[in-house]
User: What shape does this take?
Amino acid sequence: VLKTTRGQLKAEAIHALGNYDDPDVVQFIRPYLKSNDSRLRWASNVALGRFKEFRDESIGHICSGLHSDNENEIAMALFAVGELSIKNRKKVCRKYLISDSLELRVSASVALAKMGFSESIPVLTDLLFHTNESTSLRVKKMLHNVDVRISKNLDKIVRHLVMQEVNSLIPNNDPNVLRKMPKSDLKTVKWLYRLAGEYEGVENIAQYI
Assistant: This one.
């Protein structure tokens, strides 16, 4: 797979190698630590850190990334902190929660959520509701394996906010309102339902678009 794939698919394949129990797979991970493609380099860092024997080496690379002058490198390092639950770097993550950079706020808040820190919730809520649709759905995808306590609280908040917004756009879920609603508003409602994981609502709205 590593020989035949490129880009993000290859990064995901490298990342998946970290799920193996056999440390011999590290020989397939290590060459990508020096890749020019940052996606492959950081996927290999995270995969390497899954193995107890190589965790310290991985953390060394990650800490170097946190001190980089390159915003993308910092964002990738923050994400890796969350993936490997490096809790002694939580202060660094907290610092970036108020960054002017969207990517740094995304990576820092997702990292904190994965480590179980609740101060991530207000920032994540803002990212889910007050950014463009592609960013919102990207953040939602990044949250697929967060700490269960954070996940439950965030889901509760998101569902509440989604239903508030939907009810303001479609009072009593009136189909007559849906038929007269501009396509842009229908797309907004569809996005809100996707955000809350209400896929029956997504299918219902789709018939009007």
Remarks:
- The two ends are 39 Å apart (CA to CA).
- Residues 148-169 form the longest helix (22 residues).
- Residues 14 and 44 are 6 Å apart (CA to CA).
